[in-house]
Amino acid sequence: MKRLVLALSSSLALGLPASAATRLMMLPIGALTDTSAVASQGSATRDSPRNASDARLHNNLGADLQIKGRFDEAIVEYQKAIRLNPDSADVHYNLGVALQIKGRLDQAMVAFQTAIKLRPGDVDAHYNLGVSLQGSNRLDEAMASFQAVIRLEPNDINAHYNLGAAFQAKGRLDEAIAEYQTTNRLKPNDAFAHSRLGTAFAAKGRWDGAMTEYQTAVTLDPNDAYAHYNLGTVLSAQNRMDEAIAEYKLALGLDPQYVNAHNNLGLALSAKGRWSEAITVLQAAIKLDPKDADTHSSLGVALSEKGRLNEAIAEFQKAVRIAPKDAGNHANLGFAWYKKGRCKEAIAECKEAIRLDRSNVTAHYNLGLAVARSTAK
Q1: Where residue 51 falls among pLDDT bands split at 50, 70, 90?
Q2: Which of 116, 182, 248, 342 is exposed most, by the fewest CB atoms within 10 A?
Q3: DSSP class per residue in 239-287
């Protein structure tokens, strides 16, 4: 049977927080206010007042372009500003933000690191360096950046949240829980943060804590499909299937394309013996994600229970083709062949399941059934 899947955010990092996305440094230009002056730099030296003013103009033009969503042009202007004034932490920071938005994370890191070198106490530069590192799966370095933010600004919500996400990705669940709890203390009405704390509790097997957090999340935001789905997973884990089914249906009402919600609803319906409904739901899941071996296997189980063995075998075969090293898929296919009376095929599949996983009790049992029937003929 398919595993229950806890939903996590699509990315560990929140991405650019609102403060970083809008915090672009517009630099004072002084007496030089005509932006056309950037086109005529003459013979000014890098350190001359005129060059400093021109650098500010390029920076401010870049910020204006960035606000308008013209990031590539903004990057060019920031680079011009840096060539004229390489010691401006603000311009390096602005360049890093634009590069980060464009997904050029390695270059963004360099820009943020330069900004930090020039201005070590820049909270936003430390934070966004952490986001870029996290987006590149350099989690230990990302954690160091978020910890630097927290030292500078202990109540930075985004830093606590993303530090928790990095801890969770590293399997350091107790530390993740502590960071998420701090996030929720600082911002108690954030439904998503409560959901994320719930996933950490669930990963620890602390179902009561997970339940509390998910219930808080759906109370704060009844239209959050993610929270309803995760509440359903905890209810399923506690064998409270009727309640789980209700939550999965709420999630699907809010997001009909939610593949995991279809999958887990199908499993919950199967657990209740509601095979016809399970078949319909699992077929819908396969339409959304035809390459999920577990869903094909779960559909095969439901079809088998309804006596639709040819269809069940077809689903198990699809599961085996997609995930040939999954012993459970071979064991399920073997049992379906056994039910069809095709003991040779059943024995072959059960033996393959045992070869892949000698501890698979179901495969050993099914092999015994098939061998006994074949020798009785």
Answers
A1: low
A2: 342
A3: T-HHHHHHHHHHHHHH-TT-HHHHHHHHHHHHHTT-HHHHHHHHHHHHH
